[in-house]
Each structure stands twice: as C-alpha cells, then as structure tokens.
Amino acid sequence: MDEYFLPPHVHCCRRGTAFVFLDLKQDDYSMVAGPAAAALSALIDAKAPSHTHELRELEQAGLLTRDSTAGRRLVTTETDVALEPLLDLDTTAVSARPWDYWNFLLACTTAKARLRWQRIENTVGAVAKRKARHSNHQTPDVERARQLTAVFQQLRSLFPANRLCLFDSLALLEFLARYDIYPTWVFAVRLEPWGAHCWIQEGPFAFNEDVEQTASYTPIMAV
C-alpha cells in the first residue's frame, strides 16, 4: 500500500463524510467526497484504501505526496474549541494610550500590505515562524489580552479597511504581537452553506468572533 503525506502548504479537515483541503500555495479550498473521501478515511484509519485511483488524482493536484521527506503525516487539523468570548463589550471599558494608537496603526498597515502584496502562504509562514520564536513564552495573560483586544476594537473604526475576517484577524495578531502576546489564528470551513472563515483564539477564548459562530465551523488550520 502506498503511503501518502500532506505537503507543507496543505491542511485538511473532515466534515461529516467529506474532507476539505486548504492549499496555501494556490490560496484555494477543495472539497473531497465520495470514493476519494472513503480512501482518505481508510488511510487515516490505517486501513488499505480501495480507491487508489482517486488518491493518485489528489496527488496530481498537489494535495497529497508520497515523498515522506517533503510532507508530514496525513492527519486532519485538531484544535481546541473556543467556548467563551474574550470580550464582553458591555463591561470591558478601556482607554487607549498614545502608544496604543501607534501600535494599532502599524499593525493595520502591516496587515494590509501583507494581504495586498504577499502570498497568503508567505503571510501564514511569517506568523507561524514568529510564534515559534516565542514558543518559550507562557500562555498569554487573559486579562491583558482582553484589555488589548478591547483597545484594538475601540480603535478599529480609525483605519479605513473593510471589516473582513482575514484582515481583522491578521491586524489583531500584529497588534498583540507588539505586546508579546501570540494567540492562535484559526481558519475553518462549513459545507452547508459553504463558507470559509478565520478568527483569533487562545484556549477556550475567542478574541474576535462570537462563539456561536465559531461552533458552526470546522477548523482546517491553526497557526
């Protein structure tokens, strides 16, 4: 039986009987169902797949590889489920300081430039490498993260960019990094209706999304 691996730029999740792949190199999502999904399930469950032709097609599409040196174990993304909102906008009162304005402007400008001029693969890679450099940091102080996220949300209207999950999540990551806080960037999908989404979380706390909304998605990549 051929052994298959995930290329470094590919992530996947299982939703019901289907699989969804995120190809960062192509900046594209692909859903796999039917015999190909059955073959993937067999591989993940360490069984002999009966639809090897479909697996070869996935390999030709760049979503799988048989080169163990160029890939990683074929597993679906697993991450903690956010159960609580970090912010209570009715009770979280903050006052932005002068340097918060400066850090906010730099964070938003950096996020906008990266999304406009860089490939998403490079942007995600830069965020992952920065977080890895600070992997010896302790889990972020929740109260400090709450106050800073509230500051970001308070200042958000000052930056002229549409409120899209990709920009807002990346800008919040850049802002928090300036205070040595490195939470997780979660990308997720749903099938009916189809949707792709992302948000910031740490442990049980969703920083910039409602937990009822996050619960309707399946994580496909956590950075």
From TrEMBL:
A Pfam family reported for this protein in Swiss-Prot or TrEMBL: Transglut_core3
Domain Microcin J25-processing protein McjB C-terminal: 112-221
InterPro entries reported for this sequence: McjB-like, McjB_C
Domain of life: Bacteria
Species name: Steroidobacter flavus
Listed name of the protein: Lasso peptide biosynthesis B2 protein
